[in-house]
Structures are given as C-alpha cells and as structure tokens.
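Lecture 7 notes: from sequence to structure.

We start with a single chain of 284 residues. Read the sequence below before looking at the structure.
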Amino acid sequence: MDTNIRALSGDALVTARVACTGNVRVEFLRCRSDAILQWRIPRPEFALMWVRNKASGTRITMGGGEATSNGDDAANCWFFPEGIDAEGELNTKSANDCVGVFVDPSFVPAAVKPVLAQPIIGFSNHELGRAFNQLTGELSAPEPLPLFTEGWAMQALAYVARAAPGFQPRRLCGLAPWQLRRAKETMRSDPSENLSVVAIAKACKLSTSHFTRAFKVSTGVPPHRWLLEMRVESARELLGQSEAPLAEIAYTCGFADQSHMSRVFSRVLGMSPGAWRREHIVCP
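Now the structure, written as tokens:
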C-alpha cells in the first residue's frame, strides 16, 4: 500500500499501520532508535504530523524551499493546511512513534478554515500530545481503528487552532435581552409544568446546546438550576402566605413531591420548608 510516511531503513521499523475512514487517513509507524523517517503531504489535504519524542535533524521543505522552524526546543508536531506541497525528514535517536493524520478539506467546516490557513513548523502542545497518546494506543492494538477517528481528528485540529499564532479564543455571548426575557417568562408561566430545555430553547429560536451555554453566561447558572431556584422562591412565598399542606405547595410549585421540595429548598436556603414557615409565616 502506498503511504505518506516511511522509514528509510527497514530494520528500524517495528510496526506500521494505516487506517482510513471516508474523510480521515491515519498512518502509524513505530521505530527503533536511529531511524530516519520521511513524509510527504498529499494535496489538498490538511495534515498533522507528530512524533512521541523530540526528533533531531528535522528538515522540512514547502514549495521547493526549506522551511524555518518556529524555534520550539520541545517541538514534536508539524501542521500543514490544505493545498501545501510539503515534505519532511527527521532522525530519531531513540525508539519513537510517528503518526500522520490527513484530513479531507471538505470535512473541515468553512468557519474553521481561516484559523487553519498557515503552516506551523515545529510546535508542542500538551493536550494534543495526550490525544496522540490515546490514538497510538488504539493504533497499536490488533482491533480495527474505532469509529471515533473522525471526531478525534476534528478535536486534534481544534488543538492546532489554539496553537496557531494570533489565535484569539471566541468570547462567549449570553442571550439577547428578548431571549432571556422569553426564557424566564416561559419557565415562570406555569411552575407546575415540567418544561424541557428543548422547548425553552425553541421559544428562544436557538439550539438546545447554544441556549444552555448562553443562558449560563447571562444568569450565572444553568437553566435547570435557575428553574429550581425559581420554584423555591414560589414555594417560599406560599409558605409565608398560606397554611396549605407542604405536599400541596410542592405540587403547585412544580416539584415531584414533598420530599423533592424539601431537599431542594434545604439546599438553596439552608433550612427545611417547615422550619422556614415557622419562622416567616404571616399571622392574620
């Protein structure tokens, strides 16, 4: 099988593995010491090269000219965006694993591509290293490559994006004022109704995941926590203004039962509903 990575000396190679999905190709080599490895980057793919241990004598060429390293003394990763003609050679002075990940550009979201537009010649990233350790463990096993390969590749590209020069993390945004108002009104509309987050997000014209993140940014708590605290507030008002049984108040305020209300109420206010009522009930 034609591969993008090869060991120049057959004696240095311990094992080699190639695994493919429709969008991602992974090549894995495990070598003894004093191995010389060569790779080429096929156009137009995104490519990410990694070696377990720092390599010496690394040489990278792009577009026919030699590329300059970023100067990271611990560098063991190299990234090349789509459409780059690149080749590399490295010498290993100890037993080493080498992995090449090649991703079809059509698989990478268009919004991400501008962040991955420049090569990164020689860098290190702790999170990426841990991810590769997990991947090499899977590749060295006799079973076929797991189905999470494509998800793993996208996560790896996210680590590369964070390592890119000038990367600015996106600031988390909360809900628009009308969305926050609608979310709260929806949850307040009937405290006894077990509204799902899906329904509340739909009322705000957002996906469930986006709504959950944005709601927490706006209020400091997740929707479920805000709803429970709102129910506690409703229960507190009823406890102080009526002599209704605790079980009835629990049902009215949307708790599963009296026991559920007691647990949540005590966690939020530091005392049971009964104790709170004895201290705060308004006498006629």
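Residues 223-241 form the longest helix (19 residues). Keep this in mind for problem set 3.
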